[in-house]
Amino acid sequence: MYKKTNVIIAILGVGILFTGCGGSTKMVLDTQENTTQATTIEDTADTETDVASENNNGSSDNGNDTRIAEETAEVQSSGSDEAADVADNQNNAADVSDSNADTSASGGTLYTTIIPDSDGNIVIDKDSISNTASYYNYQSGDTIVQLVGIATDSGEKRLAFNTCQSCNPSPQAYYQQQGDLLICQNCGFDFSPEAVGAVAGGCNPMPLEKLTETDEQFLIPAAYLDTFVDVYASWTGPVS
User: 88 or 120, which is more confident?
Assistant: First the structure.
């Protein structure tokens, strides 16, 4: 009887022992599971942080790219503006250069409109005069006073009124070039370039008495040309 009781007690003790161990084991397992879950959550959070950091870096890189593109565009725009300014300056220089002369051509003959400079002079560059006659139109009121320029065989530049000293005020009292000669369209008299501006008193282009000559230019006072309006009142020579 005593032995049986002891056996039962022993069995109960073992059962309790195993029950306790089971509880402890369960607690350990739960703890490990919780630890694993916490670790997983922490890893997940770290991963999300890394992704966010990468996204931020990407955004930063995109921002840098955008800034670089904007700076490049500004530089290009500045270059375009500078190029436009240079082009404007060149155009303005061309306008200034052309302000005293408006040239047209007809059949190889040059007709140039001339206006006084700030000193009241008509300025004609000798470079504009060649073996082909050039004509210069000065507007005096409603009348055009025309000059003719031509170079000699030796390269000397000559300038005179384009009207015949004997034939004006005939409407046809002007000269046109035929070959190497200037021909009066009223009387048909021919005139060599060497005599232009050098011969007076007959059927010849009227000399410019108030002509100033330099190595590069002819200068004529505009007020002097204004006194020849009556000579050109009936004149009908071509002006373009």
Answer: 120
Residues 164 and 187: beta-carbon distance below 8 Å? yes
Residues whose CB falls within 8 Å of the CB of residue 228, separated by 6 or more in sequence, listed in order: 140, 145, 161
The edge-to-edge listing of strands for the beta sheet with 175-178 is 175-178, 181-184, 190-191
What pLDDT score does 67 carry? 64
pTM above 0.70, yes or no: no
Same domain, 11 and 71: yes
Show Cβ contacts of residue 133 under 8 Å, excluding neighbours closer than 6 positions: 109, 148, 149, 150, 175, 176, 177, 182
Specify if 236 maps to a domain: no
Mark whether 193 and 129 lie in a shared domain.
Answer: yes
Chain center to CA of 3: 121
| More confident of the two residues 38 and 161 | 161
Domain count across the chain: 2
Could you tell me the residue range of the domain that residue 162 belongs to?
101-226
**CATH number, residue 144:** 2.102.10
Q: What's the token pair of residue 55?
A: 């996204």
Say whether 57 sits in a helix, a strand or coil: helix
| Structural domain contains residue 239 | no
| Residue 31 to residue 196: CA distance in whole angstroms | 124
Q: Which has the minimum average pLDDT: 51-55, 145-149, 154-158, 228-232?
A: 51-55
Residue 118 above 70 pLDDT? yes
Residue 94 shares a structural domain with residue 132 = no
